[in-house]
């Protein structure tokens, strides 16, 4: 696999935001739409939603999960809580329901900020990322059949203009390009990395 420099983005110094600044920026629909234009769901594509939970610590973080190694799809990958949108559900309702099922997040706690641009995955899903704000402390009980670990990723890393890296690799005989975020123990790439980049663009100046 090879890495190439990220596209040019302005630096933000210092690389930190207060909880109030995070909340203010994520309340701006124009900021949430900064990433590449929202992808419309093609006919027949499976619709899904994920919750992008931002914890408003003194140094804010974003909540991520490590999927269980026994799952039939995306096993052992870093992800946001989420899943299919059931008939009659909005993306917001689906994201909250899935977060409650996967990590035990009380659906009354998140304050929904809005949606990041949707994207289509290589596995045939149209994903709607729903951003939510949470005031710590938050009590979570992961469903071990689905989630091996819950961890927090510093928002300060999203503000770093040197991140993420653009990488490439061969998958199914084809060369594909994807984003990758730095972490000491986890590999954060693919659709999750793309959604983190959308969140980063919403937060950066």
From TrEMBL:
Gene3D superfamilies: Nucleoside Triphosphate Pyrophosphohydrolase (3.90.79.10). Residues 45-175 form the Nudix hydrolase domain. Coiled coil: none annotated. One of its GO terms (molecular function) is metal ion binding. The keyword rRNA-binding does not apply. Its cofactor is Mn(2+); Mg(2+). The keyword Magnesium applies. It comes from the Bacteria. Keywords: Hydrolase, Magnesium, Manganese, Metal-binding. Belongs to the Nudix hydrolase family. This is 8-oxo-dGTP pyrophosphatase MutT (NUDIX family).
């Amino acid at each position: 696999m090879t890495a190439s420099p990220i596209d040019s983005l302005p630096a933000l110094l210092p690389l930190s935001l207060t909880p109030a600044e995070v909340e203010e920026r994520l309340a701006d629909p124009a900021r949430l739409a900064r990433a590449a234009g929202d992808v419309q769901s093609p006919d027949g594509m499976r619709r899904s939603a994920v919750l992008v939970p931002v914890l408003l610590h003194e140094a804010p973080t974003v909540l991520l999960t490590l999927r269980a190694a026994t799952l039939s799809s995306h096993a052992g990958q870093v992800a946001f809580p989420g899943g299919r949108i059931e008939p009659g559900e909005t993306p917001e309702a689906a994201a909250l329901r899935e977060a409650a099922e996967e990590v035990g997040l009380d659906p009354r706690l998140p304050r929904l900020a809005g949606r990041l641009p949707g994207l289509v995955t290589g596995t045939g899903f149209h994903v709607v990322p729903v951003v939510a704000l949470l005031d710590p402390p938050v009590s979570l009980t992961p469903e071990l059949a689905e989630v091996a670990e819950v961890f927090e990723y510093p928002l300060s890393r999203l503000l770093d203009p040197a991140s993420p890296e653009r990488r490439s690799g061969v998958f199914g005989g084809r060369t594909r390009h994807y984003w990758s975020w730095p972490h000491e123990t986890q590999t954060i790439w693919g659709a999750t990395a793309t959604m983190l980049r959308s969140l980063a663009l919403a937060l950066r100046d």
